[in-house]
Specification:
It contains 6 helices and 5 strands. It starts with 8 loop residues before the first strand and ends with a helix. The longest helix has 15 residues. It folds into 2 domains: 71 residues, no CATH class; 69 residues, no CATH class. The strands form 2 sheets. It has a 3-stranded parallel β-sheet with strand order 1-2-3. The chain has a two-stranded antiparallel ribbon with strand order 4-5. The radius of gyration is 17 Å and the shape is globular. It has 141 residues and is an alpha/beta fold. Helix 4 packs across helix 6.
Length: 141
């Protein structure tokens, strides 16, 4: 359940963001909610469109980002996604940096890395970008 997590930033689509707004007071570590697509219907504190969130990053020095990258270790959580909950309650799935790297490499090995640029120009995935295979097709492109 979301209440038991230490999220500092949550990226959502519009329909979910309304649900997050309702429970945000129960998320003490939450610093920002980022709506991935479209414009915000209403102004909420620390809630941003994707474009405005990217603007925030422009003020961060490259050395800060470089240090964060250097600190990353295999097995550390890169992203936390949730299952759809179609057969039971949704479950959190932690994907590590090396998991994402391996899966993307396996995808490129399967399609042929020499054809990766050509293939990723026009890729159709029935899986959402929150699924490991959906993420890999985005990363490969």
């Amino acid at each position: 359940m979301v209440f038991r997590t230490l999220f500092s930033v949550i990226v959502v689509f519009d329909i979910v963001s309304k649900q997050i707004i309702v429970i945000r007071d129960k998320l003490p570590y939450l610093k920002a909610i980022v709506q991935y697509k479209g414009e915000l219907n209403k102004d909420y504190p620390d809630t941003y469109t994707w474009a405005k969130f990217l603007e925030l990053g422009k003020s961060v020095e490259d050395s800060v980002v470089d240090n964060i990258i250097k600190e990353q270790k295999p097995g550390q959580c890169a992203v936390l996604i949730y299952t759809s909950g179609t057969t039971a309650n949704p479950k959190g799935v932690m994907l590590s940096h090396d998991n994402l790297t391996w899966t993307t490499k396996a995808l490129l090995d399967t399609i042929g890395s020499d054809k990766a640029e050509e293939v990723t120009k026009c890729t159709i995935s029935y899986l959402p970008s929150t699924h490991i295979s959906g993420m890999s097709s985005l990363a490969a492109g």
